[in-house]
Design brief:
This protein is an alpha/beta fold. The protein is built from twelve helices and 15 strands. It folds into two domains: 16-244, Aspartate Aminotransferase, domain 2; 248-372, Aspartate Aminotransferase, domain 1 (Alpha-Beta Complex). The longest helix is centred in the last third of the chain and has 18 residues, at 247-264. The two termini are 23 Å apart. The structure holds pyridoxal-5'-phosphate. Residues 58-60, 84-85, 87-88, 131, 157, 159-160, 181, 183, 194 line the site of pyridoxal-5'-phosphate.
């Protein structure tokens, strides 16, 4: 049986990417400088409607330089979504700062405004890292209001959220900074890569400076600041330049996939699809579901049944406050007692195959296997 993936790289049908990569070879711009980089950064600025962007080696490096731009340093507190990938948190540690994990709310699976308020009663953070899971928006109107009240800047981890429009605005444009990822499994990819976006041109210029080893303007190599080798390659930017042209097509396909699952499972009492936000055009990066607490079918049953048929799926993120490396940091629960919302979602959630290369036939196979468990 042909393997069905969770989310795999999907180049444009027109092979735009190959054309731009070939251009890089033909012109010998095979470094971290060149036309593909300029054009890729420009296309993302135009798409999101932001003033500044810098293409980087990864989403993680984008989060890192974003935090550094916000002045996060040793012993600062940084609030961060608890239900996420470790890459949202690691850069806080790179800066020797201290994360405080903020629980999710049931209606979005994303940062709970209520838990965030509770956290502000306890700490004064330097920044808040807000993650948008699986392409669904955090309730940014609430989060922004709370952070403005306390005068604390937001860095959006929009690694999974490129293309989602929430209440008329793209994810990644609500905060002072937005971090994007072009890792192989994301909605568009450069094989590996990321971008930091903002309306603050000076701050992005500084991030660009840091990303190429902080070389002072001098004939010899002179450095007055610590630098990083975080810049994206011009070859990979060529892939991004092609991919951005099919982003809307990928979003349409991801929505078809989600809607087909939703329709197929609507009569199964034990299955609930990840809730949808009002006034949101989601990129539907991953279709996720939860099983009712008393369901006889558990999330592992689904994952194992699919695995037997060569189909990839995975659990919802394991919350950061439950990770061995991060256990020692504080966690703010959305619930007043009992287990957190994030842990509950982890216990009952599955991310389903959401590969844009998947055919309708293949998706029906996935659906049949899951239905047969009930
Ligand atoms: C993928 C991802 C990242 C990191 O991106 P990389 O490009 O892999 O470094 C960060 N946060 C979240 C939520 C992600 O899903």
């Amino acid at each position: 049986m042909k393997k069905i993936y969770l989310a795999s790289p999907h180049m444009s049908e027109e092979k735009y990417e190959e054309k731009y990569v070939k251009e890089a070879f033909d012109t010998n711009w095979l470094s971290t400088v060149g036309e593909n980089l300029n054009k890729f950064e420009e296309s993302v600025r135009e798409y999101l409607g932001v003033k500044a962007s810098v293409a980087l080696a990864s989403g993680t490096s984008a989060i890192h330089l974003g935090l550094k731009s916000l002045g996060v340093e040793k012993d600062d507190i940084v609030f961060v979504s608890d239900l996420t990938f470790s890459a949202s948190v690691n850069p806080i540690i790179y800066q020797d700062a201290t994360p405080v994990f903020i629980d999710s709310e049931p209606s979005t699976w994303n940062m709970s405004p209520k838990a965030l308020e509770k956290a502000f009663e306890k700490y004064i953070p330097k920044a808040v890292v807000v993650v948008h899971l699986y392409g669904r928006a955090t309730r940014m109107e609430e989060i922004v209001k709370i952070c403005e009240k306390h005068n604390v800047p937001i860095l959006e981890d929009a690694a999974e959220g490129l293309g989602t429009i929430y209440k008329g605005k793209y994810l990644g444009t609500y905060g002072k900074f937005g971090a994007l990822s072009f890792n192989g499994n994301k909605i568009i990819t450069t094989t590996g890569g990321g971008m930091l976006v903002s309306n603050d041109e000076q701050k992005i210029a500084k991030a660009r400076f840091w990303s190429t080893q902080s070389k002072d303007p001098a004939r010899h190599y002179q450095h007055s600041e610590i630098g990083y080798n975080y810049r994206m390659s011009n070859v990979l930017a060529g892939i991004g330049r092609g991919q951005i042209q099919v982003l809307e097509r990928r979003i349409a396909k991801k929505n078809e996939i989600f809607n087909r699952y939703k329709e197929a499972f609507k009569d199964i009492e034990d299955i609930e699809m990840m809730p949808e936000n009002e006034d949101e055009r989601s990129n539907q990066w991953l279709s996720a579901l939860t099983l009712r607490e008393n369901s006889k079918v558990k999330y592992l049953d689904i994952i194992e049944a699919l695995e037997k048929e060569n189909i990839e799926s995975r659990p919802v993120w394991k919350p950061m406050h439950l990770q061995p490396i991060f256990e020692k940091y504080d966690f703010i629960n959305h619930n007043d007692n009992g287990i957190s919302v994030g842990e509950d979602l982890f216990n009952r959630g599955v991310c389903l195959p959401s590969d844009t290369k998947m055919t309708e036939e293949e998706q029906n196979r996935v659906i049949r296997i899951i239905k047969s468990l009930f």
